[in-house]
Automatic annotation (TrEMBL):
Signal peptide location: none
HEAT repeats: 213-250, 252-290
Name of the protein: Serine/threonine-protein phosphatase 4 regulatory subunit 4
Sorted UniProt keywords: Coiled coil, Cytoplasm, Phosphoprotein, Repeat
Main location: cytoplasm
Originating species: Phascolarctos cinereus (Koala)
Location of the region described as Disordered in the Swiss-Prot/TrEMBL record: 714-768, 820-853
Function text: Putative regulatory subunit of serine/threonine-protein phosphatase 4.
One Gene Ontology term, aspect cellular component: ciliary basal body
Compositionally biased region (Basic and acidic residues): 714-738
Length: 853
């Protein structure tokens, strides 16, 4: 707070004094609760512990004479004591814990249950010691009168069962269950018995389960309390896995059928869900004769019953249809499909004006339940595509999919956005049918929907551009007009919100765009936007995501002028920017350039601009550069880059001699040691750097390919212009001759040949390039869109120049194919590279590689 002016300090007027008094009164009111919260001397004395006591003695003292909060702290610290001194903890502390737990409150009970489980998971003692010391305490409190405490101890016990030996389980848990499961026991005791029986079913052999566990299971399935019947019913699928198919059919299935007809809706619901989980265990006869009638009856009564049943049915409908697939008649198949469609629009008929007079409009609570039903239907949509067959999607499910994508409730659209990629994969060649829905979800007003859709956006866009019935080029042309505005609007909507993580994710996923749309479209609609985000956004992760995506766009940009403009912009506006924040982002960009581009590219354009920041007036910039220097040095090759190495060493010496900031100087000294330990890469081939060198060669080869592609595109445009002029000349000849004879196809040969005739030497060079064509766009990006620099070209069909019009049409077919193909390495084609270095590896001088800028 700045000091008050002198006039204000000397102002002792009456009004001013009253103001000061009121302020002091307000401060007094604020301090009163603090005074009341302070401990009295007696309380402090009672809470004080002798500092000379060790951990075990302190724990025993606090459990014996301390307050509840101190005892709870000791119980929470029990895993630490077991790690430090298990023998003394078991001998002195654990008996005190056992005594305290008999009268402990809820908080200490919950803490003890969690601590006991942690001790088991950390394996501080052997399982025999654990069962001897802790199991009895757990069993004593499993039936605690508080439901929350009982559930906490029960979860601990269920986790322990997995690790206990069979003999211990049989004597300590299974044998007492015979009495605990009787009707004379409390409701809580019988509920605990149900869950324990389900857990024990997989721990014993089938004959033991049949003799000792199944009688208890049948008894609990017929309990007088519906809670017990429902709880036991939910354990039947676990028990069925332990006893096998035969016993399941003879014992479990009859019980399930009876429970499915129970008077309680919760029991019927549990029976339905258990039947769905056990469908795979039954053969076709059992499913068609026994289970299918029950399921049909359950579905027919679901709209008249409680909404909870409708919720469960909508959640399990996909799994149910999958399990019954193959035994349904066409009529039954259609009925299940119509039932699913009805659930997908449940609660929307009133909004669309289709409400019947007999059905009252739903209240707010019902609307929430109906929205949950539609959400479950969206979750099951991929399973329903399999149910109807993807070939029938357009006729059977497209209208339903449209409704789910445009549902008024956000959770429904969010769920269908999560499933969108799965739907795309299932539709395969018919994926183009849902293109409009993708655009709609990209333009959704809810960022939750957009966030869910973006998770698999690269894979979805790839399917849309390559999986349709039309060719790849046609698919791209169809997708572009609506896709680009939707993508830009989605990014801007995320940028205008406070959810920066969603914005960051979108920018990261947009790195796939070079695989989806053309280089020009990226340049004019996305690249400059990335640069704007870097210099205007205030969130560091968002800035870094934009920087990396911009570098990827630069990596696959196909025009010299555009690449030159981007590089100049990065250096002038970031590297030489007025704000130190811009210069920090420039160093981040340099790091991405090193990661994504070849060493020669970085050395040619970013090496010296990065070193200039050693003279930066801001210490943080110099510090960040020091951290980056080892990576910068790794881009050098000796002896070609010897002059750059000298520049690097000179900058490091200046930092050591002239740096005044102690933090920066300390980092410089550590960096110097690291730089001295680094091994330099040589121009000649070296075995120890084989992997890095081969990867760098692949990057450099792809960068050189961009130059060739651009040159060939220019020639293509020139040849197209010549061909157009030839066609005009041909039409003029036809009009002048006034003949109706059809000219043979070989007539344009002489014209095209004469118009496109060039020296044979350059044509041979270009033809040698044509023969080495491979996929570029389809292989330019890694399938995961993460490590784009690691991608390698795959073999593809060689494009031969077969046109009779000379190289004009040859270049035309080559450039069209090159949209999706990358050059094959010279060694694979059996051709000699222009220059070789080391072990016959193709080399090209860096000055020749990057003089285009």
């Amino acid at each position: 707070m700045p000091p008050l002016p002198l006039s204000a300090e000397m102002d002792f007027s009456q009004n001013s004094l009253f103001g000061y008094i009121e302020d002091l009164q307000e401060l007094t009111i604020i301090e009163r609760p603090v005074r009341r919260s302070l401990k009295t001397p007696e309380e402090i004395e009672r809470l004080t512990v002798d500092e000379e006591l060790n951990d075990i003695e302190r724990a025993v003292y606090l459990l014996s004479s301390g307050q509840d909060v101190q005892g709870t702290s000791v119980v929470a610290n029990l895993p630490f004591l077991m790690r430090q001194n298990p023998a003394e903890t078991l001998r002195r502390v654990l008996p005190k814990v056992r005594e305290v737990l008999h009268v402990a409150g809820v908080e200490m009970q919950l803490t003890a249950a969690a601590s006991f489980l942690t001790i088991l998971q950390e394996e501080s003692v052997s399982i025999q010691t654990y069962s001897h010391s802790f199991l009895h305490i757990i069993l004593q409190h499993v039936e605690h009168r508080d439901a929350g405490v009982s559930n906490a101890w029960l979860e601990t016990l269920l986790s322990i069962i997995e690790a206990l030996p069979k003999e211990t389980l049989r004597h300590e848990i299974l044998n007492p269950l015979v009495s605990k499961a009787q009707l004379s026991q409390t409701l809580q005791s019988r509920l605990v018995s149900c869950k324990l029986l389900g857990k024990l079913a997989n721990k014993f052999e089938a004959h033991i389960i049949k003799r000792e566990i199944l009688p208890l299971v049948k008894s609990l399935c017929q309990d007088v309390e519906y809670e017990v019947r429902s709880c036991m019913c939910r354990q039947l699928d676990i028990i069925a896995q332990g006893i096998g198919t035969e016993l399941t059919k003879s014992i479990v299935l009859p019980e399930l059928i009876e429970l499915a007809r129970d008077e309680s809706s919760s029991v019927r619901l549990a029976a339905f869900e258990t039947l769905v989980n056990l469908l795979e265990m039954f053969d076709a006869d059992d499913r068609s004769q026994t289970i299918l009638p029950l399921v049909k009856s359950f579905c027919e009564k679901s709209f008249k019953a409680d909404e909870t049943i409708l919720l469960s049915l909508s959640l399990h409908l996909g799994k149910l249809c999958h399990g019954l697939y193959g035994i349904l008649t066409p009529d039954q198949h259609l009925r299940f499909l119509e039932f699913y469609k009805k659930l997908c629009t449940l609660g929307l008929q009133q909004e669309n004006g289709h409400n019947d007079n007999q059905v009252p409009p739903p209240n707010q609570e019902q609307e929430k339940r109906y929205a949950s039903v539609r959400k479950n239907c969206a979750y099951n949509f991929p399973a329903m595509i399999v149910f109807v067959d993807p070939k029938n999607f357009h006729m059977e499910l497209y209208s339903t999919f449209f409704c789910l994508c445009h549902d008024p409730e956000v959770p429904v659209r969010h769920t269908i956005a999560i499933c969108f990629y799965e739907v795309s994969k299932l539709l395969s060649s018919g994926v183009y049918l849902i293109y409009k829905e993708l655009i709609a979800l990209l333009q959704d007003e809810s960022l939750e929907v957009l966030d869910a859709l973006v998770d698999h956006l690269p894979e979805t866009l790839e399917l849309l551009t390559t999986g349709g019935e039309s060719s790849v080029q046609e698919s791209k042309l169809l997708a572009v007009p609506d896709l680009i505005p939707a993508l830009t609007a989605a990014e801007q909507r995320a940028a205008g919100s406070l959810k920066w993580r969603t914005h960051e994710k979108i920018l990261q996923k947009y790195a796939c765009l070079p695989h989806i749309i053309s280089s020009d479209q990226i340049y004019y609609r996305f690249l400059h936007r990335m640069f704007t985000i870097m210099i205007t956004n205030n969130v560091l992760p968002v800035q870094k995501a934009a920087s990396r995506t911009l570098c990827i766009f630069l990596r696959y940009n196909r025009k010299q002028e555009q690449r030159h403009e981007i590089i100049q912009k990065l250096i002038e506006q970031l590297g030489q920017g007025k704000s130190y924040w811009y210069r920090l982002r420039f160093l981040d960009t340099c790091e991405f350039i090193i990661e994504l581009f070849s060493k020669s590219f970085f050395c040619k354009y970013f090496f010296l601009p990065a070193l200039e920041l050693t003279h930066d007036p801001v210490a943080n910039v110099r510090m960040k550069l020091c951290y980056l220097l080892p990576k910068v040095k790794s881009t050098l090759k000796i002896p070609a880059d010897k002059h750059l190495l000298q520049q690097l060493e000179l900058c490091v010496r200046k930092l050591l001699c002239q740096e005044k900031d102690k933090d920066v100087l300390a980092i410089v000294k550590r960096t110097v040691l690291e730089l001295d330990r680094m091994e330099m890469s040589m121009d000649a081939f070296q075995k120890r750097f084989y992997e890095k060198d081969s990867l760098d060669q692949e990057k450099e080869r792809e960068e050189l390919l961009l130059l060739e592609m651009e040159q060939l595109e220019k020639e293509k445009q020139q040849n197209e212009g010549r061909q157009n002029s030839d066609k005009v000349f041909e039409k003029k000849q036809r009009r002048d001759s006034k003949t109706s004879a059809v000219l043979p196809k070989t007539i344009p040969m002489s014209v095209a040949g004469s118009s496109s005739c060039t020296p044979s030497t350059s044509k041979e060079v270009k033809k040698s390039k044509l023969v080495r064509s491979q996929s570029f766009s389809s292989q330019a990006l890694h399938p995961k869109y993460g490590n784009l620099e690691k991608c390698t070209g795959k073999n593809s069909t060689t494009v031969y120049a077969t046109s009779v019009s000379g190289t004009g049409k040859s270049v035309l077919s080559y450039t069209e194919n090159l949209e999706n193909q990358i050059l094959r390495s010279p060694d694979r084609q059996g051709r000699k590279p222009k220059t070789t270095g080391g072990n016959g590896m193709a080399r090209r001088s860096r000055s020749d590689s990057w003089d285009f800028l």
